[in-house]
């Protein structure tokens, strides 16, 4: 059973405008706080009926926190009872989410939001692009647990090792899969196409086959705005043609999207949401979790950071002759925490059996590279020297998204602007000058090696994470 606290900002007792469930009022138990109503929610899309609380009393024993993108205040409460529900229902049975690429940049931030929302999380990563700690532990996930006060289970595992994946699915009853794991460097993909096709597409096929064998049919897929190719119009919406992709990385994402759509059309039990990201920046506001790739940096912000702290003399800006405001490329930069909450919203949408859906996740605003540099300088007070270089093969001059569909159907909207992205990244960088590499991971993260997943010594030659 799942329990939610629901209230509007003034705690005036309205039902959550984002969830909009069908409900019946239950009889109040004698021990309930005065004025509390219990609502039993009819949710045929889940194995766990929900109990919802509205019209909270002034001295409510329940914590209330802001819902992402929603004016309603709510919080999932799992595996505990309270005075308000004692004698009425015992809460148990949190839904289980299997996360590939869990230790990576977007993966680790999403794990935080999943744990906060009450999900049970099983994560895997092969550390091809994430920092390992001692005994195969994941430094980013250790910190995720510290921040949330909740635990998860983790396996050092690669999706190309199908037998290891099968053993994990044999061990747990998994409800949802979030698939982050992929090679992602645009430039490298043009140099090593076969490597990218194998690691991105074959690994996804392995995952889908294992899911089907174990009766798991719900997935959120980490896609990309690169599937649109060069935009025919801006801002770009989900109806924009796809497939005219300019780089190998994008072609793998497009091929996987087509495969997922075909599966959902042919086999009615599947429900899959593909999230087309724009350009993630920022870090967790605590400064404890951020981007720390072990391969060469491919994202812009970490390189700007290296210039700011003196590790590089200048920033190489790739392309200064685009038909844009200042000649540099335009991107829709989105805070990584907004992406994370977008995944939680997508899981909730899967409960409604959407079959196959795609959503843009961005801010709906485009900024040039030089505008990003200017915002970073304003926030940090650091001057960023730069030099214009030739364009990079496969890059798109300008792209930003229309994210109104996600706002309408997921009840999600990006909350953070470009200066907040710079501020949170700078806090992460200055608090962790060596990234995760100085960590001495603790033992709270439950590392599972008995299943025999992965050999991290092979990680650079296998698939990295999102």
Automatic annotation (TrEMBL):
Main EC class the enzyme belongs to: isomerase
Superkingdom of this protein's organism: Eukaryota
Keywords carried by this UniProt record: Carbohydrate metabolism, Galactose metabolism, Isomerase, NAD
InterPro entries for this protein: Epimerase_deHydtase, NAD(P)-bd_dom_sf, UDP_G4E
Domain NAD-dependent epimerase/dehydratase: 97-362
Cofactor requirements of the protein: NAD(+)
Keyword NAD: yes
Entry GO CC: cytosol
SUPFAM superfamilies: NAD(P)-binding Rossmann-fold domains (SSF51735)
Biological process, per Gene Ontology: galactose catabolic process via UDP-galactose, Leloir pathway
GO molecular function: UDP-glucose 4-epimerase activity; UDP-N-acetylglucosamine 4-epimerase activity
PANTHER family per the UniProt record, alphabetical: UDP-GLUCOSE 4-EPIMERASE
Name of this protein: UDP-N-acetylglucosamine 4-epimerase
Taxonomy of the source species: Eukaryota, Metazoa, Ecdysozoa, Arthropoda, Chelicerata
Documented EC number(s): 5.1.3.7
Catalytic activity: UDP-N-acetyl-alpha-D-glucosamine = UDP-N-acetyl-alpha-D-galactosamine
């Amino acid at each position: 059973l799942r329990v939610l606290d629901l209230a509007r900002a003034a705690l005036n007792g309205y039902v959550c405008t984002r969830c909009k469930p069908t409900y019946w009022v239950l009889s109040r138990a004698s021990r309930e706080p005065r004025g509390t109503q219990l609502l039993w929610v009819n949710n045929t899309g889940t194995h766990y009926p929900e109990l919802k609380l509205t019209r909270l009393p002034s001295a409510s024993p329940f914590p209330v926190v802001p819902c992402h993108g929603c004016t309603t205040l709510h919080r999932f409460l799992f595996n505990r009872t309270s005075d308000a529900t004692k004698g009425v229902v015992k809460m148990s049975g949190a839904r289980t989410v299997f996360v590939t690429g869990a230790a990576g940049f977007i993966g680790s931030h999403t794990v935080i939001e999943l744990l906060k929302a009450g999900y049970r999380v099983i994560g895997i990563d092969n550390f091809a692009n994430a920092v390992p700690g001692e005994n195969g532990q994941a430094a980013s996930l250790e910190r995720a647990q510290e921040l949330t006060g909740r635990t998860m289970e983790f396996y050092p595992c690669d999706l190309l090792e199908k037998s290891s994946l099968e053993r994990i699915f044999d061990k747990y009853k998994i409800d949802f899969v979030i698939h982050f794991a992929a090679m992602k460097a645009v430039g490298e993909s043009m140099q090593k196409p076969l490597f990218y096709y194998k690691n991105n597409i074959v690994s996804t096929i392995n995952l889908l086959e294992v899911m089907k064998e174990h009766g798991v049919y719900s997935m959120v897929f980490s896609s990309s705005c690169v599937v649109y190719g060069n935009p025919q119009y801006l801002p770009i919406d989900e109806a924009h043609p796809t497939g005219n992709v300019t780089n190998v990385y994008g072609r793998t994402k497009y091929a996987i999207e087509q495969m997922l759509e075909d599966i959902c059309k042919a086999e009615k039990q599947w429900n899959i949401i593909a999230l087309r990201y724009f350009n993630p920046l920022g870090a967790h506001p605590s400064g404890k979790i951020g981007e720390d790739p072990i391969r060469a940096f491919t994202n812009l912000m970490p390189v700007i950071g290296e210039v700011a702290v003196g590790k590089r003399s200048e920033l190489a800006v790739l392309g200064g002759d685009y038909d844009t405001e200042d000649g540099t490329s335009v991107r829709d930069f989105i805070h990584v925490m907004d992406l994370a909450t977008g995944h939680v919203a997508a899981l909730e949408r899967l409960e409604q059996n959407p079959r196959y859906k795609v959503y843009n996740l961005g801010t709906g605003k485009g900024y040039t590279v030089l505008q990003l540099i200017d915002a970073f300088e304003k926030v940090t007070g650091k001057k960023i020297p730069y030099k214009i270089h030739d364009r990079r093969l496969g890059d798109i001059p300008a792209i930003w998204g229309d994210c109104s569909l996600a706002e309408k159907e997921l009840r999600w909207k990006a909350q953070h602007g470009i200066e907040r992205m710079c501020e949170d990244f700078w806090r992460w960088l200055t608090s962790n000058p060596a990234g995760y590499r100085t960590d001495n991971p603790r033992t709270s993260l439950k590392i599972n090696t008995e299943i025999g997943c992965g050999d991290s010594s092979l990680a650079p030659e296998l698939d990295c994470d999102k």
